[in-house]
Amino acid sequence: MAETEQLPESNVDVLIIGAGPAGLMAACWMAHCGINARIVDKRNSKIFCGQADGLQCRSFEIFDSLGFADRAWKEANHLIEMCMWNPGADGIIRRSDRLADTPVGFSRYQQCVLHQGRIERFFLDNIKKYSKDTIHIERGVLPESLEIDESKVDDASAYPVTIKLRRLTEEEAAPEQQANASKIADGLFRSSLIYEDDEEDLIQKSQARAGTGEVVHAKYVIGCDGARSWTRRALGFELHGEATDFIWGVLDIIPITDFPDIRMRCAIHSAEHGSLMVIPRENKIVRLYIQLKEVVPDASGRADRSKITPDLILHAAQQIISPYKLDYEYCDWWTAYQIGQRVGTNYDAHERVFLAGDAVHTHSPKAGQGMNVSMQDTYNLGWKVALVTKGIAKQSILKTYGSERRQIAQDLITFDHKFSRLFSGRPAKDLMDAEGVSMEEFKSAFVKGNLFASGLSVNYGANELIAKSVDAAQQTGEGESTISTAMQMSPELFAKRQALAVGLPVGMRFNSVKVLNQSDARPWHIQKKLKANGRFRVVLFAGNILSAAQKARVDKFCEALDAPTSFLRTAATTAGSSPDSVIEVLTIHSAKREETDLLRDFPEVLHPFNPHTGWDYDKVYVDDASYHEGFGDAYATYGIDKERGCVVVARPDQHVSWIGELEDFDDLQKYFEGCLVLGPKP
Amino acid sequence: MAETEQLPESNVDVLIIGAGPAGLMAACWMAHCGINARIVDKRNSKIFCGQADGLQCRSFEIFDSLGFADRAWKEANHLIEMCMWNPGADGIIRRSDRLADTPVGFSRYQQCVLHQGRIERFFLDNIKKYSKDTIHIERGVLPESLEIDESKVDDASAYPVTIKLRRLTEEEAAPEQQANASKIADGLFRSSLIYEDDEEDLIQKSQARAGTGEVVHAKYVIGCDGARSWTRRALGFELHGEATDFIWGVLDIIPITDFPDIRMRCAIHSAEHGSLMVIPRENKIVRLYIQLKEVVPDASGRADRSKITPDLILHAAQQIISPYKLDYEYCDWWTAYQIGQRVGTNYDAHERVFLAGDAVHTHSPKAGQGMNVSMQDTYNLGWKVALVTKGIAKQSILKTYGSERRQIAQDLITFDHKFSRLFSGRPAKDLMDAEGVSMEEFKSAFVKGNLFASGLSVNYGANELIAKSVDAAQQTGEGESTISTAMQMSPELFAKRQALAVGLPVGMRFNSVKVLNQSDARPWHIQKKLKANGRFRVVLFAGNILSAAQKARVDKFCEALDAPTSFLRTAATTAGSSPDSVIEVLTIHSAKREETDLLRDFPEVLHPFNPHTGWDYDKVYVDDASYHEGFGDAYATYGIDKERGCVVVARPDQHVSWIGELEDFDDLQKYFEGCLVLGPKP
Fold first, then answer.
1. Dihedral sign computed on CA atoms, order B392, B395, B398, B400
2. Residues with Cβ < 8 Å from A577, sequence gap 6 or more?
3. CA of A13: how far to CAs of A155, A354, A651, B497, B550, in Å?
């Protein structure tokens, strides 16, 4: 490629490779934080049907922080109940259990399904809106080379990553789309089986055409380019793990059936013919995951693609669901996959090039986890890259991405491995049938896995962004701690701090309750006030502000907060931004709303005055016992003392990261000194 | 105008004049029902700021039936509490009361405010979507003449109305927009004060330019062209009523103030300086309605426009709100108006040209009723015109529009007259102060008026669409009944029928409860299943379907329903439409969900089979006592016997229109024979 010198060159702060859910989530953060970013994808159009469809409660909470949960919630099918069907003594399947599909009371949302194409649509609209139409998905663009100048990686202002990009022709970039089963094309699930030959072809074809490339110098690169990630291979990293013998077919159909639970999520174990999962979807469609016992991998461990047809998959489903009838006229999509659980060896190179999503973890799709965990990778990473790029946060926080997310991928693989084994296994005939899977064990695994599968159990370990003591996994070296010795907290001190708000575990996402705005009495889920705009929040649980003793404590805390040397005043702000653009202070008090007055009872720093627009009426809330509706009583839910309150910090991704008393201001200051760039007030 | 013969001519089923909220609602129905319709407006752009902003609970329910309540709900400011401020013994204002702003438990929604421009935006998007981009707002188009060929008005297929339209130049059609108070222009509230000179000018200017007109022949015309309605004047109809001496200013500002309740809805009566209403809005804006005691109408009853400036209005507000301070930097909009309550003499001409909205009723804006009642006029009218145009309903139902809506306008005027008088009056100093207004009386009027103001109390009288006995108002001739003698029901029979479901009063909108879908256990507000698509719904409260005796009753009712001669089978359907495109049957049973099976326990007519897509899983619901969340227990809420159930009909606008036992099929058949065209099954 001697033409390199002639290619146009440009700089960009953040380059995102791949515009699937993980890449779009990363782009979304850049849009919300005002970062100069580009996102490229080799496909020339978005997904129309099929692919991932499961949406966790936590993904909805994240969508809400970005502003489009309502659109997804409205279109999605909500999964309320899970039915288990197993062989009875006569070998005929019957419903053995009904379980709630979502753990009750943990989230405002419910587990749902909606196809990936719609979710990508919501992302695109959101990115357009928040980037003011400056970030576009550049489709049909393929990366060809990646170099990191190691001499520059410690210089925050440098552009150490150089990427060569090439624009494909329409024809080259056309994705494989299967509109219906009448246009039959074979397809093994791309996220799990790695066939790299198509893509290599593409690169070779593309390289034959000179003069349509460009060279981009980036501060940061985020590779979200799927299980066959070009970025991962360019870095020389690998996925470790193994494939299994289980082969599954997938049909998205409008079923014609007398099976009574076809609109319920069902796990069906037949006596001899394998297992079937039913996932009812939007627009009358039902997704069926069907075990294909007749398709056996060859010696190399791969299944013979040519054997797998929609008819073969349907036939397998009919055998499993018998004596009920199953057929269809309309098929929206179909595919087949072989379960493989793999995790990436590395999550980043020099904290300048990052990998996310399927590029660093693959697993079976049946638990509906893939798209969620992938999006949550970049929901974790995006704000960190954005704040470092803006000079607000220290570069060192970037190493928490790998330590936090690799642990989640490991947990996912463990969960998926167990779940897949239990679901693919033949049901035990009786207690003596050691080779069969116990249906009780399957049910119990499902119930236990449900909280995990909701995405609500994620709990990050100690590091410079999470002020807690190092946990057991980190001590034994299984997890990774990036925390400096100076920042480490003793288990005793942490236990004391956590006891101030046991319902807000440090490391987990800020659980939502409803509180009322002090000024207008409007109820809000507090999570709605933790928008994804890159801000940390100091949530002051002010307790009983009408008690003179407590008021004195609040006044003293606010005095420290308002001092010229406090983190709130010295957090680096970009030119022209408002004082609370880096850290926002929210207050939730527990006094009687009607007897409390915003202007009289709260120090100004809690409701700042703006000479153009007056007082800020959106910062102070009340835990009003008269308004519950199932999510009220904040202090009780969080386990916070109603009289004395406490102080809680939430990171920009809503994870609780520090808890302390109102007197612990110095430690709070130290927390922010550890992760943010605190300069003199501009 | 000798050029008339040369103008292009065309036919249209429905022509709507005016694209404000009333006109857009009418166009929305045409889009949802697939009617060939046009909508024209003389302005060349939509509203950017100011104007109406109050949204009733009922308007949200209606928006939800069209599919965009969520957008309005998300952007609107929600009004939770109303605070009353009155002079104390010392003459200084203080908060005397807090009241809930919305009557509790009546609706899923809350009273809200959002400016008219956003609501028009939602309508435009919805019309575009449902009309498949075939209905566009034709802006800058002025009607010039209207003729009705009376010989054709009884012929359903005729186009008896001829309208001449003329396209204006950009300049002519520019609406008056006041972006802020620095660009000061005087403006009296256009909906309430009638100055026709501007429009006459426009018409004269327009007539000077030949060759840009057209002639349209319409089956039906809906005039929604505001208080100065051209359509009304073309028909020679008038508004009757009177103006008052009270003059009010309006400011939409971001207030800078120490008044503690500035983010609450407040009614402030000062001792001497007049009254002030505070309406907190979206985006930090607050709307203030300010009594202008210093501006006095002249001998003709009109106020001197030139005297009214934002400074004068602000000064008046400062005097009322004293000793609190009030100022602003940002003003979004301002205007002034004189209260006038007027109702149109006629609502239609030959049931071919209809008037709606401000064209037939004007009143003060403070109670936030105007836009709501206007939209509800055409929500009442639109489906009737659509169904008659499609040949589904009889032409005779069109006369129910005037009888139903004129009564509402009268009620509104009465409410507004009383409310305005009490709000504009000086507060009484003590019990002996006969000239002053009692603050207790004001509070009591407000509380009583609140249900009315929510839009939920509308109760239509007996007519061919509402199967009930003629009420007192109709008997004394105050209300108008369009019901034929043959259809009249005795008060005794009606009382017996209504007793089957006292919580669903015939004539009122179908109150919503949450029920679960039998097939997938998903909770739904039942109103969500009463979408605005022109269908009548027969809601079968099937009772305890697991009891053999009750099952026999249900089977018998369904047998009649499914017979070739039943209204369900003989309702005229347009070619190619599905069997339930005119009347849809929904079922809510009260047996235990887990013991009930859709396919086993319910006759096929309740969940029809489609050879392409299988069974219909969206028609049968269950009153599941385990799932309440404040809106459950349907049978108890509706007062329906859990064992025996009953049958309820909802019109396409969600109003309850017939109630009977499962044995009253013949009477139900008669109801539909009265209003629909029932032919042989195609």
1. negative
2. none
3. 13, 14, 22, 72, 70
**Helix, strand, or coil here: A26?**
helix
**ipTM entry:** 0.88
Residue contact A263–B517, C-beta within 8 A: yes
The per-residue pLDDT for range A79-138, each reduced to its tens digit, is 999 999 999 999 999 999 998 888 777 889 999 999 888 999 999 999 999 999 999 999
Instruction: In whole angstroms, give the CA distance from residue B267 to residue B449.
Output: 14
Neighbouring CB atoms inside 10 A of A479's CB total 19
Selecting among A289, A460, A635, A671, the annotated active-site residue is A289
Residue B572 in contact with residue B678, Cβ under 8 Å? yes
CB B614 to CB A254 under 8 A? Answer: yes
What pLDDT was estimated at residue A415? 85
Query: In chain A, which residues have their Cβ closer than 8 Å to the Cβ of B74?
Result: 70
> Are the CB atoms for A411 and A559 separated by under 8 Å?
no
pLDDT in tens, B441-470: 888 888 888 888 888 999 999 999 999 998
Rounded (10°) CA dihedral B327, B328, B334, B335: 10
Cβ-defined contact of A81 to B264 (cutoff 8 Å): no
Residue type at B565 in one-letter notation = T
To the nearest whole Å, the CA of A134 is away from the closest chain B CA by: 24
Q: Answer yes or no: are the C-beta atoms of A137 and A177 closer than 8 Å.
A: no
> Which residues are CB-neighbours of B104 under 8 A, at least 6 positions away?
none
Q: Is B157 exposed, middle or buried (0-12, 13-18, 19+ CB in 10 A)?
A: exposed
With beta carbons under 8 A apart, name residues in chain B contacting A523: 80
pTM recorded for the entire structure: 0.90
Beta-carbon separation of A254 and B613 below 8 A? yes
Would you say how long chain A is, in residues?
A: 682
User: Cα–Cα distance between A537 and A584 in angstroms, integer?
Assistant: 5
Alpha-carbon gap, residue B260 to A620, rounded angstroms: 14
Intervals of chain B under pLDDT 50: 1-4, 177-211, 575, 681-682
Smallest CA-to-CA distance from A52 within A30, A76, A17 is with: A76
